[in-house]
Design brief:
single chain, 139 residues, 0% strand, elongated
């Protein structure tokens, strides 16, 4: 039955299927559905602070001196947004965290690795200026 449902879902997409057609449940990496769901609840903890920083750039450029700082360091507010997003999408899912576990483990570990490196990034001050405190706070 599950195979039939999967085939129908793949066919309804209308283009070639991208990604895995299996979900790891009952193995060492994802022993049950609750662990599987918990892994996906980490995504907003990573993405929300990035979105908050990106959205906050438009506000902080109105502060005295910040527009000059951003233009001097990055060229423009738009350029720093692109720099942050390009770096995250280039390295946040690069598989650097893959330890042979489930596919979500490798991607999450890559993203958490990126988060760990934030203080070393050229744009780390932008995160602080937009109110960033951590990837584990309230958003």
């Amino acid at each position: 039955e599950m195979g039939r449902i999967l085939r129908e879902a793949q066919q309804s997409v209308g283009r070639p299927w991208v990604g895995l057609s299996v979900v790891h449940l009952g193995d060492n990496d994802v022993p049950n559905a609750l662990v599987f769901i918990d892994k996906y609840t980490q995504v907003p903890r990573i993405v929300n602070p990035i979105l908050k920083a990106i959205q906050g750039i438009d506000e902080i450029v109105t502060w005295p001196g910040i527009q000059t700082y951003i233009e001097g360091e990055f060229g423009s507010p738009e350029a720093v947004k692109i720099s942050i997003l390009r770096d995250f999408f280039r390295h946040g899912f690069d598989g650097s965290g893959d330890d042979g576990g489930s596919c979500i483990d490798g991607r999450l570990t890559s993203s958490w690795n990126w988060c760990q490196q934030l203080s070393k990034k050229a744009y780390s001050r932008i995160f602080l200026l937009t109110g960033f405190s951590s990837f584990d706070g309230a958003f």
